[in-house]
Amino acid sequence: MRRFARSRNLTAAALVALAFGGFTASPALAHAPVTPTTPPGTTYAPVNIVHTERVQAGPYGVTIGFSVWPVHAMQSMDFSFIPDGGIQGKSGQLHVDGPNMPADERVQPLARHPRKRGVWGLDTTALPSPGQWRFGFVIDGPQGRGEGSLATPFTALQQPGPPLALSWSITTIPLLFLVGFIAVAWRRMRPGSAMEPLTA
Fold first, then answer.
1. DSSP character for 103?
2. Distance separating alpha carbons of residues 176 and 83, to the nearest angstrom
3. What domains are defined for the chain?
């Protein structure tokens, strides 16, 4: 009986490990990161641009590319920022202004897009809230410094699907049932609960 109880305990422990391992495992990267040691000629998933907007930042024209249009809050997408004449010899900053935008993320350097190295951009980025959003630029280059922003802000629509809190609540219900079931089974099968065989 002790051996049988111990076997059931090990099975319950394995179920717990499997359940929590499955729910806490980090998701795989959607795209391979580009590092300084990435071999030349390495190809990555293309960045599809389905909508563009134009910004004039002083002497520099910039095309903003959106991989999804219209834009929804909490929707993962790519942004590309393509200055006329390319990015060689230029640097600058991106200014993002919109509802609930964290203060420490409103200004960030313009960096190469990880999967489209010839332009600046943001990879698989989501806007946190619906509402009016504006992109602005400060660019330094051969013609000096230029500043500018979207003449008309674009609108991020409501998050598609159910609210995020509701989605999380629904997905955790099976886990709660599983944890409760394992807890009840553990109490019934804990060591010492099995009856010892009678001896003469």
1. G
2. 51
3. 51-156 (2.20.130)
DSSP 154-165: EEEBPPSSS-HH
pLDDT digits (tens, 9 = 90+) for 4-23: 344 444 444 444 444 444 33
Lookup: tokens for 124: 């698989």
Helix, strand, coil percent values for the chain (each to nearest 5): 25, 30, 40
Burial of 125 (0-12, 13-18, 19+ CB in 10 A): middle
What are the distances in angstroms from CA 112 to CA 44, 79, 125?
A: 14, 11, 14
What's the predicted TM-score (pTM) here?
0.61
Q: 3-state class of 147 per DSSP?
A: strand
Location of structure tokens 């809050």: 73
Q: Count Cβ atoms within 10 A of the Cβ of residue 168 and give its class: 0-12 exposed, 13-18 middle, 19 or more buried.
A: exposed
Two structure tokens written together for 169: 């609540």
